[in-house]
Amino acid sequence: MKAPSAQAIVVAAVVVALALLPLVGSDFFVSFVMTRTLILGMAAATIAFLSGYGGMTSMAQLLVYGIAGFMIGNFSVSEAGSKGLKLGLDPWLSVVLALLVATVVAFILGAVSSRTTGIYYLMLTFIFAVIGFFFFGQVTTFSGFGGITGIDPPALFLDQPIRLYLLALVLSLATYLGLRAVIRTPFGLALQGIRDEPVRMAALGFNVPLHRVLAFTLAGVVAAVAGVVNVWWNGQIDPQSISIGPTIDLLIIAVIGGIYRLEGAWIGAFIFVAANNYLRNIPLVDSIGITEARFNTVIGALVLAIVMASPDGVTGLFDRVQRQFANRSRASARAFAVQGNTPNNQVTGGDQ
Amino acid sequence: MRSGAEAVQLSSDRVESALPTRNRLSPGTAVVGALCAAVALWILVFATGTSAGAAVAEPGEFIVTMLDGFTLAGLLFIVSSGFTLIFGLMRTVNMAHGSLFLLAAYIAISVQQRMVGKTNNIVPEEVAITSWVVPMLVGSLAASVLGIVMYQVFLRWHPGQDLRQALITIAISIIIADQLLANFGGLAQRMIWPGAVTHFFEILGERYATSRLFMLAISLVVGGALWFWLNRTRMGMVVRAGVDDQEMVRALGINISAAFAVTFFVGSFLAGVGGAMGASFAGAAPGTDGSWLLNGLVVVIIGGLGSMKGAAAGSLLFGMVQAFAPAYLPTQYTFYAIIVTFVLLAAVLAIRPNGLYGKAEQ
Q1: d(CA B299, CA B84)
Q2: Number of structural domains, chain B?
Q3: What is the pLDDT of residue A72?
Q4: Do A263 and A328 have their domain in common?
Q5: pLDDT exceeds 50 at position B6
Q6: Which residue out of B84, B99, B167, B247 would a mutagenesis test of the A interface target, given it has the greatest number of A Cβ atoms within 10 Å?
Q7: From A116, which residue of chain B is nearest by alpha-carbon distance?
């Protein structure tokens, strides 16, 4: 039996620490900061997956996430005053149906965009995201701008914020391990080949558009699961929550963490949510004119600084620091150089 | 640096070669062709349960919808031509284009209010031509100054890194949007068309606003000027040559960095002109930046990134779809008009993955 790698130990330690968090952390921190971090992290991880391993920087992940949420609202809510279809189905059945709808939509969107890549993919999926926002805003059959309120999770999670937190933790871990496993399958390797050399892969007989569609659909399923947990946690959903601002926020989360690294998604989500909740607590901030209302200016400047300095985000910075240390001790230098060769060079790429 | 081989054409004479060969009929083309025929038939004869009515029975409504499409296409062209100009030369996807639009709109509105001397309830009769044109130019200049600063300070250090540049412009757009909200508030504001163009005229029994034709006229003037600049001036030739092969232009001793800066200036200026027109046409509010970025992106994705012809064709198609979809969908489904935009995109991409006049990426 081979010894577990340093990375596996770190992941295990973080998971154990997060699992024990409800025992020590305040209710606010666990339920409002960490649950939200885990949910957004899952959704952002799908961007990192598509971008880092498929060369498809998608801005439609929050749309699929939102579709799952809207479908839960439409299927499970039955109160007369509510918006949407009001089918009043069993919550668990609603989950199955919502995931089904989200998967089908993700497949269609993936198929439409399957022959584009790179910056075109970003623009096209951004268009999808905005169209989705207007769709749920204008079509009152499914929601309307007011959104759907009073969405209850199944009895197992009803008024149980700690359970919901643990669910988000388990699903986050499953997402992380699952996507990592997918990357190592023949499908994942072919996807990375397509990211780097689509023409050559096509010449070798790989169906390039099909791989892209399947990767997008898989990412869509994961984003939809995150969307289901989100709507249980929130109890409501409205089109504003999938509008341009939140769509860009999710991309920002992935960028802050390092858009080519899966684990970066959760780190980025934590930084984003923490900044959102605790910015006002930093001393002297309001004396230089930065108040909570100007949160977007702060987050925009933060992203600008990160992208200007280190396109691979916080995890990229961490890698660089690690490499600096490695260069000092020659013995470990080679190991880190190999590690540093991950898709990061694609970020600064352009010289293709 | 990406080579000229993949940079997209701006020159008109070489675009033809990028058109598909028309002697084969793929299944996608057949489906889209059938779809177009069905839509045309629907509009002409069967669209009785719609807000406009079948074109045969209601020719006036049809003409008005058509005019709506043309005038909207004019505004779309101004916004998207700036976007596609910048992309064509520098491969920079300027996701802050909508923010420049909104900035120009707000500045034009406040300059107009100062010139008229009232902050609200301005009526068109109080607005002389100059108190529309001057605010428009001031707003556009502000947008182009911001655009050039954006390019010189942030973007020029990362040539060829399109994703990184897109992320930079996204970050800038967040900051601009937030600052605009802080300075101009969250309420919708409007620029007022000059009184000289605010009339109605009668066409086949329908009233139509002259201001919309004024908008179309400005778009045609701007389009003509753009054509002249790109095709008949030295700077335009440098820009077109740069689109084809930057390295070669540089090697010939031409200062292409200056052309980059000028292109960013012109592209942002166009966003500004669009902003002033958009503010007069539909108003300006937080969120307007996003919806006009969307409009610009849809046009260039349909038309093909970097191609002026594509921007014109894409504007026309998208303008028509936006005018016809709400008018000719059955009344209880009018809200689904946004889906038609998606169908249009999917249909174009099914036949031409790089847009109508776009070239392959690699």
Answers
A1: 9
A2: 1
A3: 93
A4: no
A5: no
A6: B167
A7: B353
Dist. CA B14–CA B237, nearest whole Å? 14
Show the beta-strand stretches assigned E in chain B.
200-203, 206-209
Contacts of A306-311 with CB under 8 Å at 24 or more apart are A306/A255, A306/A256, A307/A255, A307/B164, A307/B167, A307/B168, A307/B171, A308/B154, A308/B157, A308/B168, A311/A259, A311/A347, A311/A348, A311/B161, A311/B164, A311/B167
Residue A191 CA to residue A56 CA, distance in Å, equals 10
In a domain, B43, yes or no: no
| A128 close to B (CB below 8 A) | yes
Asked if A291 is an interface residue toward chain B (Cβ–Cβ < 8 A), one would say no
Q: pLDDT > 90: what percent of chain A?
A: 51
- Reported as a single tens digit per residue, the pLDDT across A118-159 is 888 998 999 999 999 999 998 888 888 888 888 888 888 888
**Inter-chain touch A294–B170, beta carbons under 8 Å:** no
CB of A194 within 8 A of CB of A211? Answer: yes
ipTM given for this complex: 0.84
A310: left (phi over 0), alpha (psi -120 to 50) or beta: beta
Task: Please indicate, yes or no, if residue A3 is contained in any of the structural domains.
Answer: no
Q: Which residues contact A325 (CB under 8 A, 6 or more apart)?
A: none
| DSSP per position, A169-227 | HHHHHHHHHHHHHHHHSHHHHHHHHHHH-HHHHHHTT--HHHHHHHHHHHHHHHHHHHH
Q: Which DSSP category does B56 fall into?
A: T
Range of the domain at B87: 64-329
CB contact under 8 A, B160 and A119: no
| Lowest-pLDDT choice from A283-292, A343-352, B262-271 | A343-352
Contact between chains at B353 and A115 (C-beta distance less than 8 A): yes
R_g over Cα of chain A: 21
Structure tokens at A279: 């910015």
Distance CA B46, CA B302 (A): 28
Element (DSSP H or E) covering residue B248? helix B246-251
In a domain, A291, yes or no: no
Question: Residue B360 and residue B60: Cα distance in Å, rounded?
Answer: 42
Shared domain for A129 and A211, answered yes or no, is: yes
| Whole-number percent of chain A with pLDDT over 70 | 88
A195 vs A95: CA distance, rounded Å: 33
Interface probe for B, chosen from A57, A126, A302 (most Cβ of B below 10 Å), is: A126
Please check whether residue B348 is in contact with residue B302, taking contact to mean a CB–CB distance below 8 angstroms.
yes
Of A123, A198, A301, nearest to B301 by CB-CB distance is A123
Give the C-alpha separation, A289 to A268, whole Å: 25
Report the number of distinct structural domains present in chain A. Answer: 2
- Say which CATH number the domain at B315 has: 1.10.3470
Residue among A124, A140, A350 minimizing CB distance to B335: A140
State pLDDT tens for residues A157-214. Answer: 888 889 999 999 999 999 999 999 999 999 999 999 999 999 999 999 999 999 999 9
